[in-house]
């Protein structure tokens, strides 16, 4: 039997936000989704975080080599309340508040069987052209596996941070065997600050953070960075190497910048690891093959996250103060202002959300 929540009753239509051209958003009324499969879950969306990839789509129509065919609904950082479930759903029930894993894997291909669901051969990701509509809408229909119940008392803001921080946590998991004691984080947006947040619970001893926005460096200091530097105001490589003459074990590139990638390689010790999380707006970046070879640098490319959501929920739930990284909240009618604020790094923005 399907279950319907008494609160937040499902409507036949819903408000949704779509990109209609580069830099253009529209608010439309669309048919509300309905349960079709026995493992389906219908959510009433509470809030959607604006990600850097959403901004790429907003500014250029392209992110990670995926081109939008307008109109299209983007968004993938979502928290919501369950209002109805399919017959066989056991993981959640009506009234539960959940964070959403926006990746839907097949569970059957060679990658899924290896435990690499994030590189599933038939992966569908929310808000990616040709895959799935995004979550910028009042209601969302998703498979049961994408629902991750929030812990009691978690705020909407904490819930929205779960998806980006899951990416950060996964990046740290990928270099766990490196035994890193010193790391650099290049880019102090939500992903970079998430790496810092997650790293503080590991055996990493010293964390160095670089960003071109001083207010983000201030947040990094609040979160426990041992040193911060602005590459527009100093030679961060020489300054950091004066502190760490043996260089760093691992550098996390979190801003999708050619400049940062090059700095990351310069900062690494022989045998170190460069972890690339940021998504460049260009199709190609340049790496110095001779320096990579001489230092025998390992390069890790991070594709979203893999089985880190529930652990991230636990971490975020234990630190309610982390919700302060959600610096801006907008209504649906303020969607353009929300995207414009994030795209322009305006008003001290770190993470902005749109609430339904």
Report on the architecture of this protein:
With 356 residues, the chain is α/β, with parallel strands linked by helices. The chain folds into 2 domains: 3-149 and 319-355, Quinone Oxidoreductase, Chain A, domain 1 (Alpha-Beta Complex), CATH 3.90.180.10; 167-301, NAD(P)-binding Rossmann-like Domain (Rossmann fold). It is 26% helix and 28% strand. The protein has 10 helices and 20 strands. The strands form 5 sheets. Strands 1, 4, 7, 8, 11, 12, 19 and 20 form an 8-stranded mixed beta sheet that branches. A 6-stranded parallel beta sheet has the order 15-14-13-16-17-18, sandwiched between helices. Strands 2-3 form a two-stranded antiparallel sheet. Helix 5 (214-222) links the parallel strand 14 (206-210) and strand 15. The model has no long low-confidence stretch (mean pLDDT 95).
* Share in helix: 25-40%
The N- to C-terminal Cα distance equals: 28 Å
Briefly note the CATH topology name of the largest domain: Quinone Oxidoreductase, Chain A, domain 1
Q: What is the CATH architecture annotation of the largest domain?
A: Alpha-Beta Complex
Note the beta-strand portion: 25-35%
- Determine the CATH superfamily of the largest domain: Medium-chain alcohol dehydrogenases, catalytic domain
For the biggest sheet, the summary is: 8 strands, mixed
Order of helices and strands: EEEEHEEEEEHEEEHEHEHEHEHEHEHEHE
- Please, what is the average pLDDT? 95
> Which class of the largest domain in CATH terms?
Alpha Beta
Shape, per Cα inertia axes: globular
Number of helices: 10
Helix/strand/pairing class, anyone? alpha/beta
Q: Over the alpha carbons, how many angstroms does the gyration radius reach?
A: 20 Å
Which residues form runs of ≥5 with pLDDT under 50?
Answer: none
Please tally the β strands and state the result.
20
When the domains are counted, the total is 2
């Amino acid at each position: 039997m399907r279950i319907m929540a008494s609160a937040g009753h499902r409507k036949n239509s819903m408000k949704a936000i779509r990109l209609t051209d580069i830099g253009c958003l529209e608010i439309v009324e669309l048919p509300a989704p309905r349960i079709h499969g026995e493992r389906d879950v219908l959510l009433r969306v509470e809030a959607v975080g604006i990600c850097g990839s959403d901004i790429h789509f907003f500014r250029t129509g392209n992110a990670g080599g995926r081109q939008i065919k307008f109109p299209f609904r983007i968004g993938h950082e979502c928290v919501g309340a369950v209002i109805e479930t399919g017959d066989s759903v056991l993981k959640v029930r009506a009234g539960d508040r959940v964070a959403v894993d926006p990746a839907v894997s097949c569970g059957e291909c060679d990658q899924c069987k290896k435990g690499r669901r994030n590189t599933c051969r038939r992966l569908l990701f929310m808000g990616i052209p040709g895959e799935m509509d995004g979550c910028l809408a009042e209601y969302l229909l998703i498979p049961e596996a994408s629902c991750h119940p929030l812990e009691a008392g978690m705020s909407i803001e904490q819930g929205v941070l779960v998806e980006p921080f899951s990416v950060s946590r996964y990046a740290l998991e990928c270099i766990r065997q490196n035994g890193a004691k010193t790391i650099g984080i290049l880019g102090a947006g939500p992903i970079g600050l998430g790496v810092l947040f997650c790293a503080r619970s590991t055996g990493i001893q010293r964390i160095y953070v670089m960003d071109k926005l001083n207010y983000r460096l201030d947040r990094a200091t609040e979160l426990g960075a041992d040193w911060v530097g602005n590459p527009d105001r100093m030679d961060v490589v020489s300054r950091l190497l004066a502190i760490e003459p043996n260089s760093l074990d691992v550098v996390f590139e979190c801003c999708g910048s050619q400049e940062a990638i090059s700095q990351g390689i310069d900062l690494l010790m022989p045998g170190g690891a460069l972890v690339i999380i940021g998504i460049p707006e260009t199709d190609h970046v340049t790496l110095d093959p001779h320096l990579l070879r001489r230092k025998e640098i390992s390069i890790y490319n991070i594709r979203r996250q893999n089985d880190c959501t529930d652990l991230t929920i636990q971490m975020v739930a234990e630190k309610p103060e982390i919700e302060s990284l959600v610096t801006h909240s907008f209504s649906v009618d303020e969607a353009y202002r929300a995207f414009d604020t994030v795209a322009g790094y305006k008003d001290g923005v770190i993470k902005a959300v749109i609430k339904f």
